[in-house]
Amino acid sequence: MAKLRLHKAASRLVGATTALLTGIAVANAADCSRKDALGTSRVLAVDAKTYPRVGLKSFPQTLPLADHEVVLTFDDGPRPPNTQKVLAALAQECVRATFFLVGKSSAELPELVRRIAAEGHTVAHHSWSHPMMSQISFEQAKEDIERGIAADEMALNGVSTQVPSTPFFRFPYFDSTPATLDLLQSRGILVFSADLWAADWENMTPEQELKKLIEQLEITKKGIILLHDPQAWTAAMMPAFLRYLHDNGYRIVHLVPAAASAQTRADGAH
């Protein structure tokens, strides 16, 4: 049965990707007109006090997800043209994700950062230059983290600040240190690892990546999924992967910071 699902999902790669690249309009994630779209099942508001560090790759705790609930996260963007292709695939299925951005790229491509947010996704942080934090001094690591946050905030909101509007951070290579973990916790920033991934930083085909993800989901049945939007094979795989999730009863959970969720509710009460 698993092999049959793999074959069906892989067979969609060519057709689904071609359809996206031949002119299907990018829809706003909040306005889904497709009745058979995967969609976003629910919004989960999280904060660093309740969940300071999540993701079983690095930590003993992960997010409170039910069976067949997944969170889609993307690292290392923004980077054309593949970030745009990933956004198109997500929009086609009315799915919202979290993008952990590299500050240097955000500074170079602020319009793309704003597009990610405008389409309903969560903008999070992934350092300025993507270093191995354990290989540099604490002061260098601190500066790189802060500079990355400031660059993301400038691109997104036009204000250079080290206080993130979305206090979510993922360490490059999952490479944290006790000092950098303590730094982020002291600032109320939730640190993300991941529960499953396809190692798409390695060279592979879209079919190989899809197979790896499906095999892991057959075991875990849920979790925080790590992908990399700059990778061409990931961008090409996304339409078929989202259809696989749809066809196999998976539900998308969109993450937002608890403070933003509370403010949204307050604004709606007026």
Provide a brief overview of the structure.
Keywords: Hydrolase, Metal-binding, Signal. The protein is 44% helix and 16% strand.
Structural features:
16% strand, disordered C terminus, single chain, three-stranded parallel beta sheet, 9 helices, globular, 44% helix
Description of the structure:
The chain is α/β, with parallel strands linked by helices. It has a single domain (2-29, 39-269), classed as Glycoside hydrolase/deacetylase (TIM Barrel), CATH 3.20.20.370. The chain contains 9 helices and 10 strands. The chain has helices spanning 2-21, 82-92, 103-108, 110-118, 138-157, 178-186, 206-220, 232-247, 258-269, and strands spanning 42-46, 53-54, 69-75, 98-101, 122-125, 168-170, 190-192, 196-197, 223-228, 251-257. The strands form 2 sheets. Strands 1, 3, 4, 5, 8, 9 and 10 form a 7-stranded parallel beta sheet that branches. Strand 8, helix 7 (206-220) and strand 9 form a beta-alpha-beta unit. InterPro entries: Glyco_hydro/deAcase_b/a-brl (IPR011330), NODB_dom (IPR002509), Polysacc_deacetylase_ArnD (IPR050248). Keywords: Hydrolase, Metal-binding, Signal. Is involved in generating a small heat-stable compound (Nod), an acylated oligomer of N-acetylglucosamine, that stimulates mitosis in various plant protoplasts.
Question: How is the topology of this model organized?
Answer:
Elements: H1 2-21, E1 42-46, E2 53-54, E3 69-75, H2 82-92, E4 98-101, H3 103-108, H4 110-118, E5 122-125, H5 138-157, E6 168-170, H6 178-186, E7 190-192, E8 196-197, H7 206-220, E9 223-228, H8 232-247, E10 251-257, H9 258-269
Parallel strand pairs: 1-10, 2-7, 3-4, 3-9, 3-10, 4-5, 6-7, 8-9
